[in-house]
Design goal:
Helix 9 packs parallel to helix 11 and helix 17 runs parallel beside helix 20. Strand 4 and strand 5 form a beta hairpin. Helices cover 53% and strands 3% of the residues. The longest helix is centred in the first third of the chain and has 18 residues. The radius of gyration is 29 Å and the shape is elongated. By secondary structure, the chain is mainly alpha-helical.
Length: 392
């Protein structure tokens, strides 16, 4: 077993581990403390006394030791160093040479791939400013050594190997639909077991988000219990991913309730924009939520109109809001626009439509009346866009 040097190194967040000689010395001390050998520096009685005193100290020290393992990057050499990452309790555990390459942004493609599969491709040492999606170093501060000899695996290389395919998907966040579909040849329980192990071994929200995405798109039925388990951790740092997965993997009423309860725990400043996650459920209950929660929120958020469009906005509800408060009227106008203009990833994915529309002439007359009563550049611009979409 190897011990971390708590003082660490002043460069790059390194923490050095025991050398091999110290490791051998440690085993010698252990054998003496356990009584199998007598210390050459004390009599037998003194040794017994010292042994009793030190046994507890040794047991306490165990918590500071790192289990031996293989370098996360090359997956050949033993772990020799830890390099700090943004994720608490998830440093990069690498050999000396891979540590040097990590800190100088000169990883070979396979080494980048192996690390990104564990830590995600968005961490500082791995993100797109420094590496292409295939792990090609783009800003190395030293020459990359023989990159052609260490290529990252392609999709075709991994598609028939569950663990390596999941590695591939975790480096592609978000993965493509075709890449996700390749998981269809594997048993759902095997996929879920691997995802649970990967998420459970880290405190990494990017890894958890990718796992939840896979659950929702590939194994929704098998994942119901696991998604519920993620909620029960009480950690809301991954609320958007949890909401997206819950909309598919959990019964609709339960999923929506969990998300609204979670939003109630957040500061109002976060709820303003985070509430768009209710759009994953496409439920008119989210329209009710808007009516009761956003009236006094400041400042106004364009996401409220997008949420209305995603939640089954009808022309009848829009008219009611237009004749209601100023805040609800603005949401109605933005919601109508979002039924044609898809300017976010979520809107592009679902392409919401206005439900139960009235004849176009009637709707335009209502919009013109509102614009005349409430003249402003914002209203005029949006009403003009909505009318142009209606007339197409």
């Amino acid at each position: 077993m190897k011990k971390k040097d708590k003082a660490g190194d002043s460069s790059g967040g390194r923490q050095y581990l025991f050398t091999e000689n110290r490791k051998k010395l440690w085993h010698r001390v252990r054998s003496w403390i356990s009584g199998s050998q007598q210390s050459p520096l004390a009599s037998k009685d003194e040794s017994i006394h010292i042994q009793k005193r030190l046994r507890n100290q040794v047991d306490e020290a165990q918590s500071e030791f790192i289990q031996p393992g293989i370098c996360e990057a090359c997956r050949i050499s033993p772990i020799e160093e830890e390099v700090e990452s943004e994720v608490q309790q998830q440093p990069y555990r690498v050999c000396y040479l891979c540590s040097e390459r990590l800190l100088t942004r000169s990883l070979r493609p396979l080494e980048w791939f192996n690390l990104a599969a564990i830590h995600g491709p968005y961490k500082h040492h791995l993100h797109a400013d420094f590496y292409s999606e295939g792990g090609i170093a783009e800003q190395p501060s030293k020459e990359v050594e023989d990159p052609e000899k260490y290529p990252a695996p392609s999709f075709d290389d991994v598609r028939n190997d569950l663990e390596r395919l999941l590695d591939y998907l975790f480096t592609r966040q978000p993965p493509g639909r075709d890449e996700m579909d390749a998981l269809g040849i594997f048993e759902g329980r095997d996929i879920l077991t691997s995802l649970n192990q990967r998420v459970g071994s880290s405190n990494n929200i990017d890894i958890e988000a990718c796992a939840l995405d896979i659950c929702a798109k590939v194994i929704p039925k098998e994942s119901e219990g696991w998604v519920r388990q993620r909620w029960n951790t009480g950690n809301l740092s991954n609320l958007p991913a949890l909401a997206s997965a819950s909309a598919i993997c959990l019964p609709p009423e339960e999923g929506l309730r969990r998300v609204t309860d979670a939003l109630a725990q957040l500061p109002e400043s976060e709820v303003r924009n985070q509430c768009i996650i209710l759009g994953w459920f496409h439920s008119p209950l989210a329209l009710d939520w808007l009516e009761t929660h956003v009236e006094k929120m400041e400042p106004y958020s364009d996401n409220w109109g997008r949420l209305a469009a995603l939640s089954g906005l009808t022309w009848g509800r829009a008219v009611t809001w237009i004749h209601g408060s100023k805040r609800l009227a603005l949401i109605a106008i933005d919601g109508l626009l979002a039924c044609w203009k898809y300017d976010t990833v979520m809107l592009k994915e679902y392409s919401p439509k206005l439900l139960d529309p009235a004849p176009v002439e009637e709707m335009i007359e209502e919009l013109d009346r509102y614009a005349q009563i409430n003249p402003s550049p914002r209203v005029d611009r949006r009403v003009g866009l909505i009318k142009s979409y209606m007339n197409k």
